[in-house]
TrEMBL record:
It comes from OM182 bacterium MED-G28. GO terms for molecular function: pyridoxal phosphate binding; transaminase activity. This is Aspartate aminotransferase family protein. InterPro entries: Aminotrans_3, Aminotrans_3_PPA_site, PyrdxlP-dep_Trfase, PyrdxlP-dep_Trfase_major, PyrdxlP-dep_Trfase_small. Keywords: Aminotransferase, Pyridoxal phosphate, Transferase. Its cofactor is pyridoxal 5'-phosphate. It comes from the Bacteria. Pfam families: Aminotran_3 (PF00202). CDD domains: OAT_like. One of its GO terms (cellular component) is cytosol. Belongs to the class-III pyridoxal-phosphate-dependent aminotransferase family.
């Protein structure tokens, strides 16, 4: 890169998401990406990196997909924009119909937004409106989960439960309640997953009784808690939550921003994997295979019918300049065609077993506490011992940075989140590339362990102390 701006350093003008103000102006070790091809991206010096997180859980089909580029280009020439407030465009109509054909039950009404956060916001604002229309002004409490991630707008950040990610930024706290994360590994005091699941369901029901079901506007949950550490809940947990919530007549919102559009080999997992029919499903990311921002939700027809009133007094006064943008919808339709034509979701179902099995072998490295995942999403959680939480957090950050640095040098982009390496490659990954990914991760983790030993941060315990179950106890 030769432009004047690059000569000044990439960190001169950009304010990055999740910025650390102490680092403003300093070119720390962020990688500048300039192109992508297949499941690989290339940095400004031409180094090739396997894209471990698929952008951010979104580049389902990898990079350089000319079919999507052509559809976008053609749409830009044909109709680059249409106002969502005054008219409709043919692409959003087509896309809404296709989505409705894949959603469970009567979730046939599709509202488009610009991304996942705006979709979560828009859905919650619909629920607020519903309570007002039904003359239940106190029915505004929201149930969410610790370690759940729902976005970065004021409202979606407020219902996000990632404790270790909390900053000094304000969030709404009134009427927002978090129940425990369904992570068995983090709760070693339970003898079995079944017992843990019973506890979680009891906790949910107790919270409903405490607040009064009539005051609870909705329960929102990711089927698999993605950014919170790829937490795969105990078997039947999602079903039992849904059953409990519905028993009390509470609205169930499934946040499928990550699980939708193929990450587990399904359009949506709510019904096909978990056997539930939510009232609202949120989607984003994979819908355009990451090519253009687009999000939205599908809502039950019955839910909306309950809101119609004879006097036509209430408007859903909510929408965005780029809701249902024809170019974004064209990218989604072109991605959709490839998902079908190339049987991408069947491929995901097939390769997931191999992917998970190979990653699981990393548990042999003493630094690794647990490898967990499902479909093409996984997390490697490292486990460093420490007597207090602040010290452990500092060490966990150091470990994450080391793994990240070593893997990048070896040709793999990981997504470190403190002590978690989150891996969710493009859905089109093949076995040889899984091998490449796992062997780099293995080397990166081993080099990190060697560094930690050298720095005195890691003390080797007897081998039995480094098993996943012993690490579970460590993390309690
Ligand atoms: C489950 C979930 N919901 C919502 C969001 C927010 O989406 P966006 O970043 O597109 O606003 C994310 C983003 O990672 C997510 O993982």
């Amino acid at each position: 890169m030769t432009s004047e701006y690059f000569r000044h350093g990439y960190n001169k003008y950009l304010l990055h998401p999740w910025a650390n103000f102490n680092e403003l102006g300093a070119d720390e070790n962020k990688t500048v990406i300039t192109r992508g091809e297949g499941i690989y991206i290339y940095d400004a010096d031409g180094n090739r990196l396997l894209d471990g997180p698929a952008g951010m859980w979104c580049m389902q089909l990898g990079y350089g997909r000319s079919e999507i580029a052509e559809a976008v280009s053609q749409q830009m020439t044909q109709l680059a924009y249409s106002s969502p407030f005054n008219v409709v465009n043919d692409k959003e109509v087509e896309l809404a119909g296709r989505i409705a054909s894949k959603t469970p039950g009567d979730l046939n009404r599709i509202f488009f937004t610009t991304c996942g956060s705006t979709a979560v916001d828009a859905a919650l604002r619909l629920c607020h409106l519903a309570s007002n229309i039904k003359d239940q002004p106190n029915c505004k409490h929201i149930l969410s989960r610790e370690s759940g991630y729902h976005g970065s707008s004021f409202l979606s950040a407020s219902i996000t439960g990632k404790e270790r990610d909390k900053s000094a930024m304000d969030v709404l706290t009134d009427k927002i309640h978090f129940i425990s994360e369904p992570c068995f590994y983090h709760h070693p005091n339970f003898a079995s997953e079944e017992e843990f699941c019973d506890f979680l369901i009891d906790e949910l029901e107790d919270k409903i009784k405490e607040l009064g079901a009539e005051n609870i506007m909705c329960f929102i949950a990711e089927p698999i808690l993605a950014s919170g550490g790829v937490i795969v809940p105990p078997e039947n947990y999602n079903y039992r939550c849904w059953e409990t919530v519905k028993k009390y007549g509470i609205t169930y919102i499934a946040d499928e921003v990550v699980t939708g559009f193929g990450r587990l080999g399904h359009w949506f997992v709510s019904e096909e994997v978990m056997g539930i029919v939510p009232d609202i499903i949120i989607f984003a990311k994979g819908i355009t295979a990451g090519h253009i921002p687009l999000g939205g939700y599908a809502v039950s027809e019955r839910y909306l019918q309950e809101l119609s009133d004879d006097k036509n007094e209430f408007l859903y006064a909510n929408g965005f300049t780029w809701s249902g943008n024809p170019v974004a919808c064209a990218a989604a339709l072109a991605s959709w065609d490839i998902f079908e034509k190339e049987n991408v979701f069947d491929h995901v179902k097939e390769i997931s077993t191999y992917f998970q099995q190979q990653l699981k072998t990393l548990e042999q490295i003493p630094l690794v506490g647990e490898v967990r995942g499902v479909g093409l999403m996984a997390a490697i959680e490292t486990s460093v011992q420490s007597s207090n939480e602040n010290d452990r957090l500092e060490k966990d950050y150091a470990v994450g940075e080391l793994v990240d640095r070593h893997c990048q040098r070896l040709g793999l982009l990981v997504r470190p989140f403190i002590n978690l390496c989150i891996i969710s490659p493009p859905l089109v990954i093949v076995e040889a590339q899984v091998d490449e990914l796992v062997s780099i991760l293995k080397k990166g983790l081993e080099l990190t362990l060697a560094d930690l030993r050298e720095q005195g941060i890691w003390q080797d315990a007897s081998s039995s102390q480094n098993t996943p179950s012993a690490n579970r106890a460590l993390n309690s």
